[in-house]
Amino acid sequence: MSTASNRLLIPTNSPQHWLIRAVWVAATLAAVLYVPVFSATGTISDMTFALELSIAAMSLNLLIGYGGIISLGHSAFFGIGGYTTGVLFERYGWTQGWTIPVGAAIAFVVGAVVSLPALRLRGIYVALVTLALAVLFPAFVKWEKAEWLTEGARGISGIAYKDVPTLPFVGDDSPREARAIWMYWLAVFVTVLCYLVCRGVVKSRVGRSLIAIRDNETAAVVMGVNAARTKAVVFGLSAAMCATAGSLFSIRGNLVNAVDVPYYSFLGAIIFLVVMVVGGPATLWGPIVGAVLYVLLDTTARDWGADASNDDAGGITGVMQTLFGWMTGSPASLISAIVLLIMMFVAPFGLVGLFKRIAARFVVIVPKPAGTGPAAAPPPLSLHAAEDGVPVEEAPAGDVPVGGHIGAAPPATDDVE
After folding, report:
1. pLDDT at position 117 over 60
2. Of the chain's two ends, which shows fewer C-beta atoms within 10 Å, N or C?
3. How many domains does the chain have?
């Protein structure tokens, strides 16, 4: 460990590096355990929803963050997972848990098929193809010839767990609280699994090929990268992960309905995109951080919106009443939009990107020289050069804001550590 340019240089896999990792893991475990032990049932349900959103945002992050492939149709994959769970449970008597991998498998196939026309398209044209998918899915659900399967505008209800397993971490609470805790731990398990899948993909040869395609597809193909196969596999994997989130969402909400539930429509795809951008694209932790912040912001804004109609409110609620009391409806959406706009000015690279930029001013994790480790892998084909001994994967974000890399090369915030 040494210092240079007023920054602390820590070698990779050194005791200091492992200490940082241990502290980070301990803090994460403490936060995960705190929710079911000390929180109310409503808060547990909100955090479960945040985990479901984080899974959907992770799936989108694989495409947009690491692949530069714009998708506005992930709400359809979210709906495929939800409707697969509803149909298999309601019509065929499947257990809720076993329907999740089936929905993921169906979405994988659909995602891989959707990627085929996108192989010859780039940028905004790929977005239009996926946008069509997001618009067509609710229309298909309401189609009268598909009502025998989807129940049309009524949707499918009654798919939540009636009796949860008796496990040590569920406890002997009321049935409602026991179901909330059970769904929370199920969401935690699936989130960890999806995180490990994303991390494995990004660190693998497929991930390096995906980043190379994002930065310069022509150069990647010249160097031997099979762009068509890489895009198809990653698109299918991304769709499968989003369908998994949709299955969890439908089980927790006890309903799957593409007409009344916005997350199965085009609005859902926009929400997933907002969560990913707020947390930080091309970072493994960005979708999780963005989802938690989005849910907390949405819940708080709705509370403030309810208090804005109270003329006798004081403190922060009194300020909300003064600012938004003129509105006839709830100002929750307006409050959320204003906060998100401010965040884009303060943290254009997302919260994780902002944290990495600040941390890089004080601490730098220095990688081992190439070829010194066992089976050292070649570096990714990236146009972003390492600076001051900081590897591309851990370097702070570049000078291009998040909004500027839609359809172009994103900033160098690839989090593969």
Report:
1. yes
2. N
3. 1
